[in-house]
Amino acid sequence: MIFEFIADRQVKVKTFLKSHDISKALLAKVKFKGGNIWVNGIEQNAIYLLNIGDVVRIQIPDEESHGSLEPIDKNLNIVYEDDHFLVINKPPGIASIPSAIHSNTMANFVKAYYLQNKYANQQVHIVTRLDRDTSGLMLFAKHGYAHARLDKQLQQKVIEKRYYALISGKGKLAKKGDIIAPIARPTDSIITRCVDSSGKYAHTSYEIVEAFENDIYLVDIRLHTGRTHQIRVHFSHIGFPLLGDDLYGGRMDCGIERQALHCHFLKFTDPFTKEIQEHSLDLTEDFDSVIIGLQKK
Fold it and tell me: What does this protein do (predicted)?
């Protein structure tokens, strides 16, 4: 894959490319694994001194498949795809990546999809993960350079992810609010998380979309950080755990047997075209049926 840039200052090639999120590791791949660098059509190395207006072209070598990730054929609900990114509607009940207890995962399915379509880059790069029982939008980068550029947006907190959740507690919930509480892993569990002063900063915003009887609410949530189980932990912490989330104290008598959490909106800037990408989804059938039942009461 070849990318082209116009030099806007007098610096070395490597310094200029770093400003475009091309790391030392990626430059090493270019040097040793079949890539190349040209300046004004002439092959150059990474320490060549650029002049303003020089045309820099870099060829990034294709990525071979990781042998440890097994491809598994599965129909994917693809929301958007181009040369650099893939957005998929993930169903509940499927983990994002393999583990000791999960093998049929989104990563396995995407690898099979890449192989079937004979894509030049065969590595699976997950930009935004979802818990196994959370449904909705997942963002994949189709090569390492695209992943690096979106990682920068994640660090800058400019990728917007919004979720619908059904929550229940005792008492009234403010119409909108922010939950800012550090999240840590408890000493007695490798699965759960908790709010603890020793944890990492975590910030969740919410707004009530609809209120139902028995202090049940449909909320629209925005994540500002991406800690493990963040939404589930934060709402449990304020006394309003998610319906169906038995791990964090949620009610299990409302007709949904998984945490009522769905990533319905994703927004990011395409780093190659500078265009804003916005994608949205309707609710899943199980989630929607609970809402319909609550509205009838």
Answer: Responsible for synthesis of pseudouridine from uracil.
